[in-house]
Amino acid sequence: MFILVNLKTYPCDPVAVAEAVRDVDESTDVARVAVAPQATHLERVAETGAETWAQHVDPIDYGSNTGHTLAETVADAGAVGTLINHSERRLKLADVDGAVEAADRAGLETVVCANNPAQIGAAAALEPDAVAVEPPELIGTGTPVSQADPEIVEGAVAAAANVDSDVSVLCGAGISTGDDVVAAGELGSEGVLLASGVAKADDPTAALSDLVDPL
Ligand SMILES: O=C(CO)COP(=O)(O)O
Question: What does the entry list as the binding residues for substrate (predicted)?
Fold first, then answer.
């Protein structure tokens, strides 16, 4: 299972969480664990040796784009992948397409987020490496999508497979325990996105160990 920890703009220590991510990733053969800090922390996080992802890239190339995030810069800072169209950083469909293209150009792995199976189908058609279904109403609640809305995960898996069977499906929202990760896997998800369960934990290593232990 792929476990991607999104730090959003939570007031945690990104380097401490990244060290926990690196240590837990190295301690297991059954999970791949990565962290997505804020753009300005990418370099410091990547220096820990943790697999580092961006939270967003813009659908742009080098040039006159003040205030935007260029995929190549994110890759230069040490990121190997990027989220696109997170529910807290929504893009127009054409811009999701452009951001996937920009990430591909920079050699970044891509996960395109979406709210529901219909959007997952549209996202899969843009040929990212993976799509992630995250019902916005469950984000940050501690109520796991795999329990509260298993149909949405199964629907997302079916919708992506219908469009492009090479696109993996992840799910997220409210996931904080190993049982939640196991349940996500049983619904056909190849990984999970999570944030508050680790970013707000007093002991991120313990929180991450709990996530991978039952796998
Ligand atoms: O938005 C999320 C991950 O990208 C999920 O957030 P929570 O894990 O806090 O529900």
Answer: 6-8, 139, 174, 195-196
pLDDT tens, the chain, 215 aa long: 999 999 999 999 999 999 999 999 999 999 999 999 999 999 999 999 999 999 999 999 999 999 999 999 999 999 999 999 999 999 999 999 999 999 999 999 999 999 999 999 999 999 999 999 999 999 999 999 988 999 999 999 999 999 999 999 999 999 999 999 999 999 999 999 999 999 999 999 999 999 999 99
Q: How many domains does the chain have?
A: 1
Contact 173 CB / ligand 1 (< 6 Å): yes
Range of the domain at 63: 2-212
Cα of 194 vs centre of ligand 1, distance in Å, is 4
Q: How far apart are CA 77 and CA 75, in angstroms?
A: 5
| Residue found by looking up tokens 């939570």 in the block | 10
- Counting beta carbons within 10 angstroms of the beta carbon of residue 62, is it exposed (0 to 12), middle (13 to 18) or buried (19 or more)? exposed
- CATH number of the domain within which 154 lies: 3.20.20.70
| 71 is an annotated ligand-binding site residue | no
Residue 175 CB–ligand 1 contact under 6 Å: yes
How close is the Cα of 169 to the center of ligand 1, in Å?
16
